[in-house]
Structure formats: structure tokens, C-alpha cells
């Protein structure tokens, strides 16, 4: 089953809950010349998963930076990068994901490796997450958004968000309108990628609350390479 059909199948079943982290326990049974970290212990190979995973090339995607004026091709970033997916009106999973990435950025600034990693949180709600909204969100979340290593990425349209976030990166999301709220929300899965400087995926943390210490540990050999 290809990724698109798999995603549609689980979406139809209402399977937006996240699975466990596939990221941290190492197994040395296999090797891949394109990655630095050993293969994580898991039940499936990368090819069998419905999202890009260890040893695979990150999707060849170019997106506008919401606050800056440039576009960013994720595959061409010259440092290791951390990519996650969110929307700023989320009140549950997304603040945890963004706070996790923010805390790694803070560690990078404090320990003088801010120029050795790039952070690329990507919204799947481009209708509301414009530059003004994300600047406000940055202040709320205490993000050093003016540091060159942080770029909010924003697909040009909801259709582009679906094509990139769900079909390329395997993050499922569906718009909802709760009865007790005046604004729409999203039911969505959670996935954070650690990508090396050559554009290959080292880790896919499929969890709502990634382990910050483990991510910093995983990042270290990538940035020192």
C-alpha cells in the first residue's frame, strides 16, 4: 500500500492518535552510509512505514518562510535540522511540540552551537498562521524567532499544506469544529524529524511529547560531523 492510500485508510478509521516514539533505542544490526545514527529498534523497515523514516531522503519540498521573505528547501539545509508540524491555535499537542523544539533551540544558544542546527516548524493552517500571527505566537512561546536558525514554514494554501504535510511527511490532520468553540480546530497526529546535513532522516519521533534530552543526544553527533 502506498503512503497516500495508507494515510487515507487510517484517516477514514479515525486513527489520529499518535503511536509510540520510534526514535531512540539503537540497533546495530544494519548500517546505512547516508546516516550517522544507528537504526532504531522497531517492528517495521522504513519502506514499510507510512511516513519517511530512518535512512530515507527527506522529501524534496520547498516552502515559504512565514516571517522571513525567503523560501526554504528542506533537503538543502546545510546543517542538521529539526522539523515538526503544528498550528498556532492548537491548545493540546502543538504547544508541547513547539516547546520541545524551543527548548532545544535554547540549549543550542546557551551552549554555542546555534549555528550548527536549523529549526523548521511547519504549519498546516496557512489560512490563520500568517506572519503577524506567528510573530505573536513566538512571543507567547518565548521563541528566539529572530535567530537565523529558526524558520516558521507556511504552505501557500490549505491544499498545499495537505500535499506537503500529510502526503509527503505522513502527518495526518483533519479540520474539526467543536461545539463548545467558535473557531475551527484540527485533529492531527504528531511527528518530529531529525534530519542530517545531507538531507537524510536520522530519527522520526512519533510522539506527542518527544524526549528533549534524547533529541539533544541524537543531535550531537550530527552537528559534530
From TrEMBL:
One Pfam family from the record: SCO1-SenC
Keyword presence, Metal-binding: yes
Chain positions recorded as Cu cation binding sites: 90, 94, 188
Disulfide cysteine pairs (residue numbers): 90-94
PROSITE patterns in UniProt: PROKAR_LIPOPROTEIN (PS51257), THIOREDOXIN_2 (PS51352)
InterPro entries in alphabetical order: SCO1/SenC (IPR003782), Thioredoxin-like_sf (IPR036249), Thioredoxin_domain (IPR013766)
Thioredoxin domain ranges (all copies): 52-224
Family: Belongs to the SCO1/2 family.
Protein name, entry field: Regulatory protein PrrC
Organism this protein belongs to: uncultured haloarchaeon
